[in-house]
Amino acid sequence: MPKGISPTVNPAREFYEIANDFAYPMEIIREALSNSYDAKATDVWLTFRLVYIPGTRAKMINIEIRDNGEGMSSEKKEGISSEIESFFNLGDSHKGDDQIGSKGHGSKIFYKSNKIIIDTWKKGKHTHAETEDEYLWNTLCEYRLPTYMYETTEDFEGKGTIIKIEGFSSKQNIFEKKEDIIKYIKWYTISGSFGKYFNNGLMNMNIHLKTYYAEEFESIDFGFSFPAENIDLIEGSKNYCKHIGPKVLKVPFAENKFVEIEIVGALIGEGQKDFIPDTYNLTGLWFCKDYMRIERQNEILENILGGEYYYRNALIFVNCKQFDLTANRNNVRQTSEEYDVAVEAIKSFLKDEVKNNDDWSKFLDKKREERLQEQIDQKRKKEQDRVSKLKEVIDSYNERGNLEYENLIIKIPRNEGETALLLQAMISTNHPGIDFKIGGYNDRSGTDLIIESERKGSTIVEWAELVYTLANLFKWSHPSESFHKIICWEIGNFDGTVKEENGILPTLIEKVEGRYNLNFGKDTIEVYVLKEILEVEARKKRDLEIIESVKSGKIK
Fold first, then answer.
1. Which of 87, 173, 335, 413 has its CA 20 to 30 A from that of 454?
2. pLDDT, tens digit, 9 for 90 and up, residues 232-280
3. Is residue 104 a part of any domain in this protein?
4. Structural domain for 98, as ranges
C-alpha cells in the first residue's frame, strides 16, 4: 500500500488562479499604493495612458506607478529570494507584520497585462527587470509559467521605483473618469486610511494622478476624517454628527492570545454625508484591515438598531489585524477562531453603545418624527396640487370662447371627449344639422358610437367614428367597412395625413356646408364637421335677425 505520498501542485495553474481572483481592474491601484506605502514613499505618481497597439488602430491601457520610496533590492540572503524576485514570485513576501499584506499575492494582478517593466533603486544600485513573454497574461491563461529577467548596476543618483504595465487587461472606460479613480483611491486604498484616530504613527503619502486625457497631475489628499461632531437636534437631524470611539478592544480567546479590535465611526445626518462618495452603497459597518475598508457587515447593525435601513445613518469602521483576507484582499475569511471572537466583541460593543448612549435613540426618534412629518407634508402637498390642478382646469375652461345656438351654450372643444359632449348637446337641442341620435358608446370596440337615424319611415342603426379632427382618423388604420359615418369638430390637415387604405387613397367631397362624403373607392362615408355646421346655423340666425330688424324699421 503506497504511503507518505504528497499531493502535487500545478504551479502555473495556481499562479493563474491567484492572478485571476483580482476581478476588478482598479485593484491594481490598491496593490500599487500598498507597496509604495510599505516602501516608505511620501509621493506616488499614477499615470494612465491609452496607446495604439503596434500595427493596429486599436488601443491598449498602459499604467505607470512611480514612487520615491526605498526601492527593491536584487540582493539575496541565504535561503531567501531577493526583493525584486519576491515581486514576481507567488507566495513569497518579505513584508513584516507591520506592513500591508504578507502573502505575496497582491502584485500578481500586475500579471494581467502584456508586459511588466521595473526600474528600482536601493542602496546605490539600480535594478532593471522585465517579463520576457510577448503576451504575459496569455502565457498564464495557457497555464504556462512566464519568465522574467533582471540586471543590477551601480547608480547612486536614482531613487524609488518605477513600474510600467503595458497592455493591462481591462475595459478602457474603467480608468476613463478621474472622479471614479479618485473615489476608489479615497475609499479602498491606503490613501483613505483612518489610522490617525489610533495614533499609529501613520505616514503621510501624497498621491498624484494623471488620467488618459489630462495634461497635468492632480494631487489627492491622504487620510480619512469624519465631520466635526454636532449633537444639537433643535434644528433637526440633517446636520447631526455623533462620533463613536475611537475605541480599542483587546479580547482574549486563548491562553496568552488576544484579538485586538479598533473601532471608530459616526452617527450622521443627511446633510453631513458629503464626505461619503456613495451614501447608498458605502454607509454602514465596515470590516477593515490595515485601516482599509474591506467589506460591509450591515446585518449586524440592522439587528442591533432594530431597523432594516438604519445603517444608512451610520458609518463605522472596525479594524482588526488578525482578520485573514482572501487572496484578492476583497473579503474577510470567516473560518478562524479569531474572526468569531472579533464579531462577538463588535456586537457586544455596539449593543452597549446603543443601550447606554441615548444619543442614538434621540437621533433615531428625531428621524422617525421627521419622516412622519415628511409623509404628512407630502400628503398635504399632493392634495394641494390636486386642488390647484382642478383650479387650473376651471380657469382654462373659463378662458375659452362659448358656442351658442338657442339653448345650447358650450365651450369650444379641445379633444375627442369634449367633441362628444358638444355632439350630445346639439342632439339634445334638436340642432337641424344633426339628423341622428346616439344609441350607444363603446371605446373598446374599435368604433365609437352606435347611432340611429330615420330614413323613409324606418329606423336605421349604424356605426359612427368620433374624432376631434378628421385628420386624426388617418394616424392609424381604420378600414372603411368598420363605420358608416364620421363626426369631427373640424377637418384639420386632411391632405397631410391621409394614407391609402387597401391601396385606395380616400378623397373628401363637400355636399353642403358642414357635410362631406369621404370616398374609399366604391365605399362612401358621410362626414359631419360640427364647427362648420354650427357656423352655418349661426349665419342663418344672424341673417334672420337682420331681416326682422329691416321689417320692423330698426334698420333702414
1. 413
2. 998 888 999 999 989 999 988 878 888 999 999 999 999 999 999 899 8
3. yes
4. 11-220
